[in-house]
Each structure stands twice: as C-alpha cells, then as structure tokens.
Amino acid sequence: MSKGIAQLSQEMSAQLSDSDIPKGFRFAATHCGLKKAKLDLAILVSEFPASAAAVFTTNQVVAAPVVLSRAHLKRSRHQMRGLIVNSGNANCCTGSRGDTAAASTASKFAAALGDVSPSQLIVCSTGVIGAPLRVEKILAAIPGLIQSLRSDAASFAQLARAIMTTDTRPKWAGARYSAGGRQIRIIGCAKGSGMIMPNLATMLSFIATDASISPAMLDRALRAVVGPTFNSITVDGDSSTNDTAAVIANGQSGARKIASDNADFRKFCAALDSVCKSLALAIVADGEGAQRVIEVEVRGAPSARAADQVARTIANSPLVKTAFAGADPNWGRILAAAGRSGVRFNFKRVDISIAGLLVCRRGGETPFSERVAHQKMLASFVPVVVDLRAGSSTARIWTCDFTGEYVYINSSYRT
Known about the structure:
six-stranded mixed sheet; 12 helices; 35% helix
C-alpha cells in the first residue's frame, strides 16, 4: 500500500496536460466576489448530451443545491449537459431564498448556454452553512464564464482550484484505457479537507469522461466504486450537508457504448475506481492540519460489516488520531477503540501492528523498540493492522492524524 501512496503523490504533483482532457468537455472558473480574492465560481460543460450519475449526502440537513440537483437528475432521466459550482458559501439552511438562489443559478446558466434546459444542469455549493448566498454575484458572472470556456488543462486546473475551501492544494486524478481500438479518458477533481466522513458521497467531486455508457450502467459503476474509495475515508467523522460526487460521460471517444456488464464495463469501472481512489486519498492527505495518512486495516472480523465498523471506530478516535500526531505507538488506544465499536470479539486474541511492527500480541504487551516505532510513525503514510482473530472478513479505512492546527482552522473558520 505504501507504493500506492507514493504513486498517488507523484501523480497529484505531475503536470496536467491537454492530452488528459476527455473529448467534448470545456471548463471555466472566475472570482465572482463570494470570496475576498480567490477563484470561487466554476462551470463544467459537455458540448453534447451526456449520461450522468451522482451520489449525494445522506445528512438530514441538506443544502438547497443538493435538493435541486437530485430533482434535475430525475427529471432529465440522467441526461445532463454540465454543472456549476460556487465555493465560499454552502447555501444551506437558507430557507426559500436558498432554494430560489439555486434554481435561478441553473436557469441563468442554461439560458447563457442557449440550447440547454435548467434540468440538465447540476448545481453545487460549498462553504459556510447558514449564511445567505449572494446569488446576484453568481448570476452576474455567468455570461463571462460562458465566454471563457476552454477545453484545455489550464481551465480544468482552475476548476479544481475554484472549489477549494480550507484545502491547501487542488486535487485531480486521471486515467486512460483502450476499448475497441479507441482510447477513453477519465479526469476528475475533488475538494475536501475537513468535515469529512462521507456517507454515499464525498465532499465535492466532479468527474468527466468521453466514454460511451448508458445512464443506468454509469450509475451502477459510480455506486460500485464509491464504497471502497470515497466512503472509506474519514478526516474527522463529520458528514457534510453538501456532499456531491458526480460523473458525466458524453461518448465522444467514439468507443462502443456500454449497456451491459461486459468486459468494456469492467475496464471502465477499474479506471473510474483508480480516479476515485486517488482523489479520496488526496482528500485524507490534505486533511485539516494533517501530517500523515493512516491506513487502518482490520482483519479476522466476523463479517464485512463488523470489520468496517471496527476500522471506522479506530479511524475516528480522537485519542488514536492524536497519538499518531505525536508518533506515539500507544496501541492501547487502538485496542480500546476497537472494543467500543459494538462488535463482539475476544480482546485476548487480538494482534496489532503499527508501521509493520508488532506492538500488541494476544491483547497484551509484546516487546518492541519504542524508538524504532516512533521513527516509523513519523512517515507520511503509516499502516495499522488489527487482527481480531474472530472470523475471515477484512476492511480498510484511511484517515489522518489530529493536530493542533485542526483545532485552530475550525475554531476560526467563520471569523
């Protein structure tokens, strides 16, 4: 797994090129005034009608753009033309004014494009909850955004920057594969640094591909890859009110259409999984105040659900995460977190390894070098393996450490 993290780091730092952009897509971003100076509004447009799929937050407190986008997907039968997203304001808990703001954004965007229905557009927002959205700034900026649409890497990079809030860097990932002699491209970006423990979605993630695939199979593919990628990360155990992960496929690669579970579909799923996993790990690596990524692997659980439950409890434990902030091999905190997960197991059979060192054997202390363990835990990626010896199921969750910087960022987010 450490090799995968290294590959991710290399990929995310690599220069984005025009050849990474799927055919038939254009992008634009601008500063409309929701933030003081940074990019805060962006659009993604398919030049042709496209299949679309999306998953959204399951938080009971739901932002207006999420409600609207769900309705648009249903109304358009998952045939979409693009999306518009603002940062700096979540447009959540804003009452009827927020609903009107989201709807007017879609209407103005559609009218500016000229040949698009508002229901063919996804609307997204991210930022402070509860503050009225100054939608007039968005509406005024849309015509200029349309005029600046481009199909190059620089425009996509601006989209990735425009969706950032407390993120310290933009996050993007791409993949290519061949089918029937045609090359298919997938590219995606994501934002997320805090308020991260997705449930059916991520913070914000937008993926474009020139694959030709039916809406039903695209939806199936997205839901299949979300579980082991976006839904397997946590920064702080909080799920956002605006979580949205959307993928748009316009078929402009010229490859044969995917309409069933065949070899082409499995290739597409593998490529989509690669993109989503890279984005998910990039979110964890950029967790607010984070110094390192922690991979929590639970083995020997009585069921897959039990394994996931134990892994999530450990990954979300403030005591575990602060121990990792100090590179302290305090395995007792890990075992205690597993014990309160609600999963039944005999703690006297549990083994725990940190960074490849066995630190707990059969639920008790085992000799290991504290100095060596501390040095290994200073790495940017630290694997943890907890073997319950209570079954044959496994689960893997990625998290990050808790530092004082996380408290500082979130105590002053609005002020």
